[in-house]
Amino acid sequence: MANQEKKIVIISDGTGKTAKRLMDAVLAQYSQKRVEFDLVDIHPEVRDRKKFNQIIKKIDTRYLVITSMIARELSNYCHEQLSKKGVLHLNVLEPMVATMSKFLGVHPDFRPGILQAIDDRYYEKVDAIGFTVQHDDGLGQLHDDADIILVGLSRTCKTPISMYLACNFGMKVANIPIVADEQLAKNLLRKLAPLKRATIFGLTMQADVLAHVREERSRFLANPNKLHTEIEGYYDIRDVRDELRFCRNLYSKQDWHTIDVTRRAIEEISLEVLYKIEHKD
């Protein structure tokens, strides 16, 4: 066997990714040696004896079998069968689980597939964040795929709420600005018409607070010499009240959820949104 190509098979009750990463890390230490090896196959989600027996029919002493089995009964069975055939084998999880159990003083759950579920949730959050960024401030075209739609006037916290929901709960959120204009409102309603009413949330804020927030934002961004002459209406309390009145009437007519975000933490607002989604309130 010294002159033959070494054959490796991975058998896992999960995806096999953990065993593959560990194998690659170890084999990297042999990069300067003249060793020929071939990863013949990776068999994922092997969770019963029947499936395992089918796999090892073609495996003989020319192979190394790397397993990542967390279920103790099946792991013991695999060890017995491979030992009978004289096949070199290793369950890469056993040393770590044994040591970790001694350190923590408790036994693991021995449930296969947990890591994959964690990975799936991670990638769901990544997708949600990407979607939310692409659908910020009226951008994007895939509003049908959104879990939540936030609408509201400028500076009513649409973006931070959207990102908090995406990053922490994996929700795909689109946020759309409202301008107090009848024609623009009609365009918005046409855009939102195919969507479920329960997913749409209208944000509002007390007029004096919104005016103050807008004024501070204006002073930060605008040319100080042109601040009062060009964008004073943006934070004028009378105009802000008119805009808020326009929004509240729109929300009421469409029977959308309405949330007042005045002086509330993003976490608190987000939990209210999630509660209403869950209970279809």
List the helices and strands and how they pair.
Elements: E1 6-12, H1 17-27, E2 37-43, H2 49-56, E3 63-68, H3 72-84, E4 88-91, H4 93-104, H5 114-134, E5 148-152, H6 158-169, E6 173-177, H7 182-192, E7 200-204, H8 207-221, H9 227-230, H10 232-235, H11 237-254, E8 257-260, H12 266-279
Parallel strand pairs: 1-2, 1-3, 3-4, 5-6, 5-7, 7-8
Helix content: 40-55%
The averaged pLDDT comes out at 88
Question: What series of H and E elements makes up the topology?
Answer: EHEHEHEHHEHEHEHHHHEH
Residue stretches low in confidence (pLDDT < 50, at least 5 long) are none
- The strand line-up of the biggest sheet is 2-1-3-4
Number of domains: 2
Count of alpha and pi helical runs: 12
Number of strands: 8
Query: How large is the share of residues in beta strands?
Result: 15-25%
Category from helices, strands and their pairing: alpha/beta
| Biggest pleated-sheet summary | 4 strands, parallel
Q: What is the level 1 CATH name of the largest domain? A: Alpha Beta
